[in-house]
Amino acid sequence: MVREGFIFLCAMLEIGKTIVSFDVIEEHFLCDLFKCKGACCVEGDSGAPLTAEEALKLEEIYPIVEPYMTQEGKAVIAHQGTSMVDEDGDTVTPLVNNRECAYTFTDDKGIVKCGIEKAFLEGKIDFRKPVSCHLFPVRITEYKRFDAVNYQELKICKPGRECGRGQKLPLYQFLKEPLIRKYGKDWYEQLAFAAKERPWEKSAE
């Protein structure tokens, strides 16, 4: 089914060169940092995925971001660099003790936050944070002919799911800014149109 520039494919939606899981439209989400304490910056088996451009940007802005980081994070970067290649061959942010992102710090409420983002919010840099972090819990897998845009449901994000359902906030609306950052306003408007019109439901009638 073709409508307004997108194609309905079984349980996924094709917009331009992306294949979007229905979960991105149908799930609800709103980060609840007071409950999760920023666990997404700590839990995981690798650092945040980086594009080649982002890796270069981190190297450029590191002297400005460094004051916002922990001593442990600074030590890791002094040893490994501002980015690294993981076991899968992907460029990622370095980790402290193979767990916590080296660019993090903990605020006075015990919430783990991003030093890069703090520098951005204070107007020190023009780079908010890696787009993979900005898009979380959506993950993008880039293939030769298309990008797969999927929702990654994790136990650590249970508070975010509960908060999103309580506020009736769809995941794609929660992630409006990073989705536009990644794919542009026109792409997002097509996604929002599909979410509103829900052609897959009409086709089943």
UniProtKB/TrEMBL annotation:
InterPro entries documented for this protein: Rv0495c
Family: Belongs to the Rv0495c family.
Protein name, per record: DUF3109 family protein
Lineage of the species this protein comes from: Bacteria, Pseudomonadati, Bacteroidota, Bacteroidia, Marinilabiliales
